[in-house]
Amino acid sequence: MDAEEALLCIRDTIESYGDEKVKHTFYLEFHRRLLTLQLIREYCQEGKVVVDLGASPFIMSCALKLMGYEVIAYDYDPQQYLNIAEAFNVKVFKCDLERDSLNMPSESVDCVVLSEVIEHLNPYYVSHAFAEVNRILKDGGVLIITTPNIASLFRRIKLLLGMQLQYRLHVHEYTKGEVERLLIDHGFKIVKSFYTEVNDLSFINATPEDYLNLKNYWEMLKAAIKKPTRLNVLRATAYPIVKLIPSLRMHIAVVAEKERITQLKGVERW
Question: What are the structural domains, with CATH classification, of the chain?
Fold first, then answer.
């Protein structure tokens, strides 16, 4: 099953078991998740072991299961949406990525996914998480990260207006160079690193069906015309700028390969 088909197959389960927050994020972030799943398919063969960290509400985990991977999901608080994972027989474990060890043998995993996770980790303890990822990955195993770009156009505008840059539930956001440096320092080789357009296209006010169709600027314009809110007008106006200057886009994706074994690094506090 391909990535898009897998995500769409989960929709009925989300509508049945998810709360309003999960239903909204399924549609709003459909194309962001689709991009991540396509990267996993590109760099990790079907049937391999994939660990999804910070997995709740398990939309990615379930899609990966349908795509033919052996999936193991970890989350700090898995209980709230556990029924979604159980509907697709996804193995789920509770884990605090800042402190706990992953209960897996060393060098036993083909791929690890950190999709919209590192921005929720305290930078003092993010080395612990990367050391554990390095430990469980096989030599040559793949780590795929997606995260917001703190240097995006709208974050820069907020700074000029004297507003807080980060989303209120994020602990620390990164530039693309900072993500790359974190990976290199923790034993990884950068395979692919880029600014994606998915959030610039899809983070608008739209209907569920319109969200699924937001594959290009034309579809975003049609949705914005249908619902001309202030957000939609701003996004439609800004998109040509971020298309021209990739570093101003909202979203970062990085694919890295385990190059060497590393040990947990000490924390610098000043």
Answer: 3-146+168-196+248-258 (3.40.50.150)
- Give the separation between CA 261 and CA 258, rounded to whole angstroms: 8
Which structure tokens are listed for 62?
A: 């379930």
Q: What is the three-class DSSP state of 35?
A: helix
Element (DSSP H or E) covering residue 259: none
0.90 cut: is pTM over it?
yes
| pLDDT single digits (tens) 41-87 | 999 999 999 999 999 999 999 999 999 999 999 999 999 999 999 99
Task: Give the whole-angstrom CA distance, residue 15 versus residue 38.
Answer: 23
Cα pseudo-dihedral 7, 63, 148, 23, rounded to 10: 50
Residues 186 and 131 sit within 8 Å (Cβ to Cβ): yes
Task: Output the CA torsion sign for 95, 97, 103, 108.
Answer: positive
User: Using an 8 Å Cβ cutoff, are 212 and 32 in contact?
Assistant: no
Give pLDDT tens digits for 71-82: 999 999 999 999
Alpha-carbon distance 24 to 18, whole Å? 9
| Token pair recorded at residue 178 | 């900072």
